[in-house]
Structures are given as structure tokens and as C-alpha cells.
Fold:
Amino acid sequence: MNLPTIEDTYAEAFKTKAAHILITAATKRYALIAATEATGFATSFIGCPAEAGIDEYFPPEKTPDNRPGFSVIICQNKTDNLKEQLLERMGQCILTAPTTAVFNLVEDGGDVDNLGFKLAFFADGYQEKIEKYDRQMYKIPVMSGDFLIEENFGITDAVAGGNLFIMAKTQSSALIAAENAVNAIRSVPGVITPFPGGIVASGSKVGSKKYKFMHATTNEKYCPTLKDKVETQLPDDVNGVYEIVFDGLNEEVINEATQKAIDAIKTVPDVVKVSAGNYGGNLGKYKINLIG
Amino acid sequence: MNLPTIEDTYAEAFKTKAAHILITAATKRYALIAATEATGFATSFIGCPAEAGIDEYFPPEKTPDNRPGFSVIICQNKTDNLKEQLLERMGQCILTAPTTAVFNLVEDGGDVDNLGFKLAFFADGYQEKIEKYDRQMYKIPVMSGDFLIEENFGITDAVAGGNLFIMAKTQSSALIAAENAVNAIRSVPGVITPFPGGIVASGSKVGSKKYKFMHATTNEKYCPTLKDKVETQLPDDVNGVYEIVFDGLNEEVINEATQKAIDAIKTVPDVVKVSAGNYGGNLGKYKINLIG
Amino acid sequence: MNLPTIEDTYAEAFKTKAAHILITAATKRYALIAATEATGFATSFIGCPAEAGIDEYFPPEKTPDNRPGFSVIICQNKTDNLKEQLLERMGQCILTAPTTAVFNLVEDGGDVDNLGFKLAFFADGYQEKIEKYDRQMYKIPVMSGDFLIEENFGITDAVAGGNLFIMAKTQSSALIAAENAVNAIRSVPGVITPFPGGIVASGSKVGSKKYKFMHATTNEKYCPTLKDKVETQLPDDVNGVYEIVFDGLNEEVINEATQKAIDAIKTVPDVVKVSAGNYGGNLGKYKINLIG
Amino acid sequence: MNLPTIEDTYAEAFKTKAAHILITAATKRYALIAATEATGFATSFIGCPAEAGIDEYFPPEKTPDNRPGFSVIICQNKTDNLKEQLLERMGQCILTAPTTAVFNLVEDGGDVDNLGFKLAFFADGYQEKIEKYDRQMYKIPVMSGDFLIEENFGITDAVAGGNLFIMAKTQSSALIAAENAVNAIRSVPGVITPFPGGIVASGSKVGSKKYKFMHATTNEKYCPTLKDKVETQLPDDVNGVYEIVFDGLNEEVINEATQKAIDAIKTVPDVVKVSAGNYGGNLGKYKINLIG
Structure:
């Protein structure tokens, strides 16, 4: 099996703000349902109110209430917008989900949002502040029983825009490689892949050559069907390209995810080349090298 | 097995606006991934930018491009907000998803959004308007190949707020019955269950007794842990309650879904009573009777 | 997109015996769990005690007990072996599964197995024969409640060995096409795809050129990595091949499944050719033409 | 929330033989598909040819070929039967599954089965013995490419029959608790839960009071619907019981799984009592105490 060429370049990532929360439920499946809804419609800052994704599974022995859970990361470039998103996504997608409870996972001494206090107004006066699991919690009576939420949630610095381009002989080969890369990235704690299935079919460039009102448009140099019309960046035998985009709690995990993704891509046949998107360092402060 | 009491009451539903679209992909699984992301963070108008959900599976022989697909319904009370949501959810969650194409399913002569035209600016001049599958389509070159989207999407009247309360001896019995009811509702074409897993753990009343700034608060009369503190509506032996909320393309499908859900609930042991939420007819124009 | 060549040949299928049963449960998910276990280790008569697979989902309104269910088909070439397999798979994989009940779906006047009567000995004298859902049923008290099973299960003639070969430019393209073909085949009521995920990675020829004790060995003429060592049947640009194998209740559904599979394969890029396996008519009595 | 009573008793487990193998594939999902088929129809020695189940997920960095994988455990009381089951399940359910490879995980110096050598006859003379991943492997050309399998697979001693009885106020509460217990048990490396969804709805006693030809019959003392007809072991308020059965590579992991399962059960409301099945020490050599 021929291994793909790894281009000696870097992905350009940038600073963002993130919340890191833990959703537990009566069963693993119900925790996953809540986490999925809470992180939906959150692929890209360009058109979504947040970037969000499921981080990792927490087995019962690692959660405060000894129930299975999933951690999720929700990102926004502005702290105020993040707080608003947190309130809406928790209130609409986690409080409403069967048997859930929700905990803060950010431990550093940064900004804090008293989300539990705010959400507890839903209890219409029947809320109770309690100490439980060595945490300050709010208890909110709901139809299915009591909903428990931690009082304070930390807001932390994070890194958005980790990315890889996977170029393969066929669209399907690029797709299988992309699926495998996403799986590898998701195994790194503290990293999420916010796009559908973690994969971007329509990688974009910043701005537009033709339409001033567009903030992002198709990256034509990587489009297989435009090979004859533009100065293509695609090798001759490449007919399918997928981008993977990932956000993480710090630069280290983005680097780790990048390397694990490349290792995963290498195991899939018919991948020709792996590259990444950058803008000469103008967009973000982090350079994530593909070749360590 | 004792059958639950079906209360002789009605769910109060109201008029909304909806888009009904079809997402196809290379495989059923990729169509589902796109449909899930596109309908995420969309449980309730109260705090989400839309109510949305997956409608039904379309086998290949029923789709324009002969590929497997899922239809989704996206609702908003104002047409302009709906158009904005459509553009963002399609642009961020479907255009970006691997191998997808997207088609309009609304055939009536109402309002139309030329969403395909708008989204095609992403192609930065490389878009092409083509006739294909007997439809006016836009072809947008992207990294994975070409993305196809229909030019016009209809906006139709729809019905939101179909609902049922399931009261059972234990929380788990109410949960299994709720899961079964959601399954039955989802089998009705044209109906969606926008909440996480289709189930609402924290059914609400309109407004608040205590906090003027709250638009919706816990429905304390149906909270098992408040039985001793409020004038409860719960029978003595009820310890768990879940609400099901569903939206549909017209009153008939909401009625059909209601009856199928009740039939499904009846097959689960230990359910005591089924009721529904209404506000004396002040909120919505539709009365969905539980007892036909 | 270039369409694949459909070879003007036929798949050679043969007569077998089948049971067609319906498994219902408290929820759709539990019905699926039971159906999956009951049809496991059942890919091929060559080394498995049966060929079996999930047929279709039955919504609540189409099942005798108004609960969601899945039908499964279990095949064996000898009636006695089929009866033994039925008893073991029902006793070990359905009776043991949470909340299940099981019904007969074969209505023709052929051979009958009083499986319900036999399985009811498990109740150790506490079994009861009852009439319910207009059927003769046995009620078996178990830890979770009562298990209900119909008394008699029909054994019917069926057709095994429907098949297709999918040849593509890359292994991944063949795989995506195979997944899509399986999905299309599964949408035909009365047809199952018994192999893992419905796909055969290691299609075989009957017998062996080298080892007399082998009943089936690799089909070297279709192996991409043997192109240079054997008289290959593979076009130059083919690097991946998957076979799909399917069994059905009659010749008509096998024909329908074949055509739907071919239609599905045509929608996936980079497939070069579609063919099928036959043995000059020596193995089976049915010739399933690829080109209608 | 009231915690269940944990009965001061023990589960009686017994010695068996096991293989422990690792299935890798191009993606996590294909590895799971192969593992599921290979461990199907394998709930209980009473009527199945083996007990088998999925052990744990192996991320790419922990597998020899750097691809995602799942380990499975296959048990049989006799070594010869186990070898036969291994050959059949590997040949029919793993060799046939898309993109798989298979490795041995048993490292102790016990009995060895040269399964790779045997299975390689399928290649009809085109097989090759190679050294790869620091292992002796066989390469078998198949339609989708090359299938790789390790030459030797170890047979190890193992422990079967770990078990728990979960008694709850309603069937649904017992079911949710059982699902949670299974999830906890599955998180222990080296332990499998062979029944459908890991749960036993129809726990049995050894032998029969009434039918000499029956090796196992319903455990009537734990059947809720027989409370009035037998000397019941069920507390008054118990209406649903599920048993969990698990096998493991040694006594330690069975003990660990038991404790984790009990912890998981305690988080689900309306469970009344947890017990286990034993036969006064006559059946097996291991006593797995519920109360450490």
C-alpha cells in the first residue's frame, strides 16, 4: 500500500473561548441523546451561533453522580455570546432531556458564569441551592423528577481551527479516510470535531474573489470538478477531497489530534496527499505543523 | 395489564411556518448525519432559533437522485426568521456534510425562498444553474465534488405544539412509554418531535407565578417531587411524568400522531394516566382531542 | 459521472427452506436487539448453522400486539435442521431478550413446527396455552413478566444465493457502493442480506483447485492482489471488489432486490462494473438476470 | 431516593475456556459490524454453540496495524469445541467482513490453535505466511484486497456465570437499571455480557421439577406473575426482575464487574433489591460475593 505524501505545512488555528461541561443521565444512551441535541447546529462560527461537539465518554466511576456521561465543548469567540449560548443550549437541550444532570469541567481560575443560578429561575421559586457531590448545585423540580445543575461554569481559553485536507484517488477513499481521522481525533480528550460526522465536504477560503458580502467561499483550488478552470492545488490523480476541522482546549491537544489523524489516514488505501489550510499566519496565532 | 386512563381533554396547538426539505446522500447513514446536525439545537421556540426534526426516511426510489434520504421539517413563527434559519442550517450543516444534495418538498403555492440561488454565492462565481431531475437546481463545486441544491424552497403553514403528558408509577415506566410514543409519532409522515430523543423531561407552563422576566417555567402541578407543596394534578401512585411535543404539516397529521402515540403508550405496563396541555384555548387555534 | 457497465449475466440462486418470524418488544430498540442476536453467526451455510437476517421493521399498527417489531428470516437447506435452529435461536436469543414476544408470519399451507409448544416446557409446568390476538399462543412466566409465543410456525420454500459483484476503482468506492446496495436490498420486504453489514469481502468459488477438503475457496479471478498471478476477470482500473449475497422468500423478491441494488450502485461514483456469480446452472435452479 | 437492598449472597461462577481476539478494520464502524456478527447466537452454553461478546474498543494506537478495533471473547467449556467455533466464526463472520484483520490477544503459555494456518487454506494456494507487526501472520487474497490473520491463537482459562438479579417496582425500572448495569460491566476490560443487550429476561434454574429432559427451566421463585402460585423470593413491591450474566478472563474482573454493576444499579430509582444466583456451591468453583 502506497502511503500518502504529508505536505510540510501547517494548519493555522486561532484563539477562542470555551465551556467544558459534563452531561450525565440514567443510561449512557440518554446522556448521548442530550449531548447530541445540545451540540447540534454548531459547525462553524461563520453561520452558526457556536461551534460545539461531544468530547468524550465518562464512565460512571469518573462522574460526580456515578452515572454515565458525555462531556461536550461549546466554543464562541466572545465570552458574552458564549454565556448566552450556554444558557440557551442547557435550558432547551439538556434541562429538557430525560434524566440528565449537568456539571462544570473547567477548573482554571478564569471567568465564571453562574449558569445554574440563572437556569434555576425555571423552577419558579421551587428551586433549591444544595451542596452535593462536593459541589454547589441547584435542584430544579421538573415533571420527570428533579434536575440537578452545578451553580458555576468556567469559561476558558481554547484553540479553534485545527484542520487537515485529505486528498484521495476517489471521493469514497477520501471519505473513509476522513471518517477514520475523525475517529482518531475524537479519541483525544479535550478535542471536538464540530462538523456533521466531523467532516467538512465544502472547505472554504476566507472571503471571496467575486462577492464582497461573502465572508467565506469555496476553496476552488481544492475542488476536483474545477481542476480545468482554476490553478488547482490537486495532484492529477486526486478526485475527492475532505477537510477535517477540530477545536480543542489547548494547543497541545490540537497537535496530538493532528498527529493521530495523520496516522489514521495512513491506514486507508488510495489516499494521495494530506495538507492543511493556513493564511500565512494572518488569521490565527497557532501554527500546527503536520510534520512534527 | 391495567390500561391507563386517557383524560378527556385536548392539546392546544398553534399555527406556525415550516419548510420541508429532503436531504439525500451517498449512503443512508450520511444522509442521517446531515439531517441530525441540521435539526440540532432546535427543540423549542422559547430559547432555540427554530423547532426542527427529522421527518421520515426516503428510500432511493422515492428521491429525485435515486439516493437514500431523510426529510426534515424546520419551523419558525415568522417567515423571515425561518428563511434566515434555512440559509444558516443548510449552509452550515448540509452543504458542509459529506456527499449530500438537497431538495424542496413543499408543493403548495405559498411563499417561496430562493435559497439555492442565495447559497450558490458560496461557489464564488463557479456556480451553475442547471435543470436536473425535472427541477431547477444549482451546482456548487466543493472539495468533495459538486453539491446540488434546488433553487426554490416553499414556506408552508404548519401546526406546532401537539403534546401529551405520560404519567406512570415510576420514572422509568414513563420513560419507556415516552420512547414508544415518540417512535409511533415519528412513523406519521409530516410530523416531527423536536425535543431530545423526542421527549420533554421538563414540561413547562406559560409565564411564571414569581418571575416576570420568565416566559415559561416548570409546570409544578405535574412535578412528582412537589406533590406535597402544590395543588398537584398527579394521581397518588404517579412518580414520573414525561411530556411529548410534536409539530406537523397540518392538523390531520397531528391528530393521527396523537392517536398513534396513545395506542403505543397503552402497550407499556405501569402507565397510570395520559393527559395533555392546554390553556383554555387562549394560546392556539387547534384543539387536538385525546379521545376521538 | 460515468455509469458502471452492467454485465449481461445472471446470479445463480437455489432453493432452501425458511422460517419468517416477527419479534415485537416494548420499544423498537429492544426488538432490534433481540433480532440482531437471533440472526447472528448466520452468514453462510458453508460454516454457519443457518443463514439469517433482519427482514423489515413492523410499525406498531401492523403487529398483533400493537408493539414495534422486526421480522427476521432464518434459512436452512434441511427442514429438520431449520427446526432445530429455530428452537435454539428462539430459546436462547428471543425468549431471553427483554420484553419480547414472537409471532409466525408464514401463512401458506406447508410444513409447520409447533415451536411454541416445545419452547413452553421452559415454563416447567407453569405454561398456559391461550387464545390471544386471534392466534393460539403460549404464555411462559419469566423473571421480567410473561413471554408470549405463537404455537405454530410455518416452514416455507425460499430462494438463497442472490448475489452481485461490485468492482470499483478503489476498495473504498466498492465499499460505499456495497453499503448502498445492501440498503436498497433491505428495503425489499422478504429479502435478507446475511453477511456482516450485508457485505461479503471474501467472495468464494465452489470447491478448490488445490485442497480437496475445502468446500469453498477464494474466487481468485476477482482478487485485485492476484491480478498478475491468475487469469483475472477484473478490468484494469479495478482495485476493489465486494460481493453482496441475499436470500428471499421467492424468486420475485430476489429479482426486485437485484434491480434495486443495481440502481443504488449506479449512484456511487467510481464503480466500474457490476457482475454476478453463477456456475453454469449446475448449482441452483434460479437464474437472476442482471439486465431485465 | 431509596437505595436497593444488596443481599448478602454470592453469584456462583464456573471455569470455562476462552479465546480473546482483536478484530481491526478500516473504520471503527466496520470493526464493530464484524465483531457483532462473530459474537451473535452466543448467549448461553445451554442452547448456543458458544458464549461470546464484544469486550472493548481498541483505539488505533493500541492495535498492531494502527487501525481501530474491537476485542471479543469467545467461550466454550471444551477446548475442541472452542477451536471449532473459532474456525467457523472467524471464517464466516470476520474473514467475510469488509476490511478486517484479526489478531490474538492471549499471551499466556497455554494451549494454542493454529487458526491462521487453517483458515489460510481458503486462499487455495495463494496464501502467504509473512512476518508483520512483529507477528507471524497469514495473508489471504480476497475480493476486497488482502485479509491478514495471525497464525496462532491462544486458548485460556476463563470464568463464566457471573450474575446479578435486579428486582424493581416496575418492569421498566428493572430494565433501565439492567441497561445501566450492563454498561458498567462492559467498561471492565476482559468481561463480556453474552445475552441480548447484555440482559436476561428469562433467568433459569438448573434442571426442571416436572420435565426430566429439560436442562434449565424458568426460575419460578423470581417470576412476578407467579407470586401467588409459588413460594416466591420476591418482595411485595417487586413487579419486574432482570438477570445480568457475564463471563470474564479471570475471577478478579468478574468481581470488579459485579461491584461496578451494583454501583450503577444504585443510581436508578425504584430498584428494590439486588441478589444473585447460586446453587450452594455445587455448580462452580467461584463464589462472587455481592457485598465486598
In short: Chain C has a mean pLDDT of 96. Chain C is about 20% helix and 35% strand. Chain C touches chain B through 25 residues (CB under 8 Å). Residues 139 and 148 of chain C are 5 Å apart (CA to CA).
